[in-house]
Amino acid sequence: MVAQGWGKAVSPPVMNSMITMGEVPGGGPAQMDLGELLATRLLVQGNSGSGKSHLLRRLLEQSARMVQQAIIDPEGDFVSLAEKFGHLVIDGADHSEMALHAAGERMRMHRASVVLNLEGLDADQQMRWAAAFLGGMFEVPRQHWYPVLVVVDEAQLFAPAAAGEVSDEARRASLGAMTNLMCRGRKRGLAGIIATQRLAKLAKNVAAEASNFLMGRTFLDIDMARAADLLGMERRQAEAFRDLARGTFVALGPALSRRPLSVRIGSVETESRSAGPVLAPFEPPTAPVHELILAPVPVHDLPARQRKAPAPSAPDLLTQLAAHGEAQASVQAEQEQEEDTAETQAEREARMTAVLRDMMEDEESSFRPVPVLYQDFLVRCRIAGLGRNALDLRRFNRALATARSGVSEDTSSSTQWQEAESRASSLPEDLQAVFLFLARAAIERTPCPSDAQIAKVYGTVSTGRARRLLAWLEDQNLLVLRADGMGRRVLTFIGTGWETLPGMADS
User: Fold this and answer.
1) Per residue, what are the HEC states of 363-410?
2) pTM value?
3) How far apart are CA 150 and CA 134, in angstroms?
4) Domain boundaries defined on the chain
5) Is the dihedral angle over the CA atoms 243, 247, 248, 253 positive or is it negative?
6) Which DSSP string corresponds to 161-220?
7) If phi over 0 gives left and psi between -120 and 50 gives alpha, with beta otherwise, what is residue 373?
8) How many CA atoms lie within 13 A of 451 on its CB side?
9) Which of the following CATH numbers is that of domain 15-265: 3.40.50.300, 3.40.980.10, 3.40.30.10, 3.40.50.150?
């Protein structure tokens, strides 16, 4: 209540949460209660061409200025929302799995609407990238649990009912993230809106959590029967789903209608990049088809493995041999020069290490994507006079993992640290920094790092993710966790004798 005037109290204005999705058969508006939708979730089903993506676009446009949005977009259909409504478009092909996990956290912290464009990635990558992004949104600290509409188009790709050609690891990660979104997301402010072409292909435990339904045109008996069951209709009425026009859906749910209601979806302001083909008059080619289709392919258009270089003539061959001899002599001279300047190379590496250590002093560096850090490193190296190509990306990743571990110069020159780096090299790149950070604590006999410290090295604020990383390393028989008599955590590396001092996990 807000005091106003002579001691009178009035309630603050309440935002209207109703959005218009289209029209009902009688001509009136078909409205959706956005506030109710945030609490009860939505499932959209319709065969290809039924207007499913159009429905999602209408819903997103109508609510874009009322609530934060996150769209998992496997085909790049919704990137056009950025121009009209200011959504941030993240191209999955340009970012790592770890970077997308961090992006999921940060988009909730800064309350930015995001379109995750997974176009161009294979199915396995799409599942793992989507799981990472959803995981970051799900694991954000409680103070950032603002309401978010999470729209997942083609949900059967991310929560399949049966195993497909993707890896088991990717399928488990994606299905787990989708299950968390639909089953546990409400308390965290995440309102799942999932759309699928076929209910039979969507995992039942994901579909069952929705309380609102918009069912479009479908033809297969099994899908019509499931749609009828979800809407509380009799099986004999299921045939009606075959006759629905494009853009017409049957709605039911607390945010839509208390009884099945036919809805014609309204127009949209933005356009999809992947609109279907338009029928145009067919004009056969006038030139001879044989010459158009089977003309010889120019050499420069052939793949490299199909090109055949002409045999060199005798003078050309002598020229190539002479050039080869000069190249060999040049290589030998460079090798001799490198031997003479071994100390200079060591100094150069020390300067690059100093640049990295300086970068790590910035608190934000732990949460910046590796490509961004790499570009920053190259700029700093140029300023320091180390040239444009101080390190390639692979060597930079190894150096970054060492820098993030916080190892001292004395420890880094020990044989124990060399063994730790050798063990870390067999792990995925995003886990090497965490492994070396823990190894450094054990080698230097310092207290076992807390979950928050481990999470920061990994590039996240989620302590739950830190605990899962420790569990994974333990499953790989790399280390053992145990508790001392006071409940503090002790970490021991298998086969090395390295062990941390006791430390509190939540300190």
Assistant:
1) HHHHHCCHHHHHHHHHHHHHHCCCCCCCCCHHHHHHHHHHHHHCCCHH
2) 0.57
3) 9
4) 15-265, 345-493
5) positive
6) SS--SS-HHHHHHHHHHHHHHHHTSGGGTEEEEEEES-GGGB-HHHHTT--EEEE-----
7) alpha
8) 15
9) 3.40.50.300
| Tokens linked to 247 | 């853009």
- For the record, the structure tokens of 356 come out as 């990295």
Contact 401, 432 (CB under 8 A): yes
Residue 274 is predicted with a pLDDT of 57
- At residue 152, the pLDDT reads 94
As a whole number of angstroms, the distance between CA 239 and CA 216 comes to 12
The 10 Å CB-count burial string (b at 16+, else e) for 216-239 is bbbeeeebbbbbbebbebeeeebe
**Residue entry with tokens 């999705």:** 21
Backbone angles phi, psi at 214, to 5 degrees: -130, 105
Q: Per this entry, what is the length of the chain? A: 507
**Secondary structure class of 280 (helix, strand, coil):** coil
Contact 140, 181 (CB under 8 A): no
pLDDT at 151: 94
- With a cut of 50, list the residues of the chain below it in pLDDT: 1-14, 305, 312, 336, 339-343
Integer Cα distance of 232 and 356 in angstroms: 62
> What residues form DSSP beta bridges with 195?
44
User: What local confidence, expressed as pLDDT, does residue 69 receive?
Assistant: 94
